[in-house]
Structure formats: C-alpha cells, structure tokens
Please model this.
Amino acid sequence: MLKGKVSVIGTGFVGSTTAYTLMTSGLVSEIALIDIDADKAEGDAMDMNHGISFVSPVKITAGGYENLAGSGIVIIAAGANQKEGETRTGLLKRNAAILKDIVGKVLEYCGGNGIILVVSNPVDILTHITYKLSGFPRSRVIGSGTVLDTSRLRYLIGRQLGIDARNIHSYIIGEHGDSEVAAWSTTTIAGMKFDEFCRRCGLCTDLDCKARIYDEVRNAAYDIISKKGATYYAIALAVRRIVEAVIGNENSVLTVSSHFDGEYGIRDICLSAPTVVNSSGAGRILETPFSPEELGKLRDSADILKRLAKEVGF
Model:
C-alpha cells in the first residue's frame, strides 16, 4: 500500500486539516476529498494543490463518492454537530443514519477492500456502528480512539518531568471521552515506573500530580473548544500517525479503537487498548497487565459504550 490512495470523507476542520497533514507527510500518492458541500471540498483541493511544488508529489482531487475507487484507506471525518438541547443519543441516531449512507458508498465504490478509519465523534460508538454496517473483518474497521489522548498524556507527563514526550511510555485506554482511563500502572520512563522516577528526579512534590494530569487530559478538548471552537491540529497528526503505521506495515503499538472479541473480558464493542497496527489495520489487541483498578475502569468504560450502542440500535 506504500504511497497509495487515501480518501477523506468530510472536509470540516478535522477532515481538511487531516488531508493537509497527509499532503505534507509524503506518505501517500493521492488524496481524494469528499463532502456534502462540494464547493468546500473543491476549495480545499485547490488551496492544497497550489502548494504542491513545496512537498513530495501527490495528487489531490475533490468530487463525489465515485472518487473513493482505489482507496487503500478511507477516513471518515463527517458527521452532524450536536444541536442545542439535543441528547447524546439523539445526536448518535442522526450520525448513525449519516454513517449508513457513507458506509454504503464505501462498499459500492471500494468493493469491500481497504481499511476504514473513523475519526468522527463520538468515535468509539461510530466505529462500532461502522463495523456492524460494513461487514468488514474487525481488523479493517478502526477508530482514532485514544491515540490523541495518549499523546496528550505523554506531553503532560513530559512537561511535568522535563522529559521528551517521545520517551514517555504511557497509555489512555477505554472510551475517547469522559470514562477514559489513564494506565499509570504501566507508565514508564527509562524503564522506571512513574512513581519511582518521580521519587528519584525530585520534580514531583507529591504524587497527586497524576490526578491533575489525568483531569487535564480528559478535559483538554472541552478547554480547547471553549477557546477556539474546535480541535483539529493534534487529531490530524494522530490520524497521520495511524495512516503511517498502516501504510508502512509497521506493527506499531497504538491505542486505536477497534472491536473487542473477548480481550480483557470485553466483547462486541469498540474501544481503545494498546493494539498492533499494520497493513491489516488493527492487527492484534494486546492484553497488557494493567492494575485491577484500571481493568475495572476499562470494563466500566466498555459497559457505558455498550449501553449507548444499544440505545441507538447497535
């Protein structure tokens, strides 16, 4: 799939920024943009094409769903925004209807091939619905999950400890949302557990910093939205990282959202845990030895998502 075609459905803040990030990455040879607002998609394609001379060769087009043909990865970034006074279930029902149409078009023009990557929120439920509608093998329907949340966690730990975020090993698991879980029991820096490192480095005056960091991660999107209306730069980078792992068949461990079939005692719902990502998509969910408390919270997160899925008929 190296230097293949990626299609982005939905060119709002997240979709267009994702397309731009992929354009500058040099990972793909073609990007197709599709949106219900055809002029918006066309304008984005024009704007990006005008910078083609500054990046590796890549073809960028805009058009209808027929442009999905030949896609190795289809990124779904489309969806309805929540209306004032609308319940979460109501929003989910509207987005389920939108997804039904989108998935039908993906099957029509991609012939059941490729990988579907869901980015639209609430990502776990929408990934679950996409999996059910598509009939694809579970490895080939993935969501962006908590890849961004994990990056936020690593950034904040690194800021606290004065360590490069790339050298922090830690995960956010479960729902991409309020029930997400910070896996402190497996957090390490230079082979040392987080608590041990804090004691040795003297940069943590108390271990309550874990609670502060977790709260900041969980509330990050709310804070950003209150300041600028939407989050899109970091999620676009997270999606680029997932695409890179798929295209390069990297076997990278990322906390994408995928369908659980008994892992951690969880079945028939999509949520996030450390997962091997390669050219097949979500190649294997790793059963990491989290603490009993974290495992309990992970299962609680799954139960919350299952209830929501049931409310919208999935």
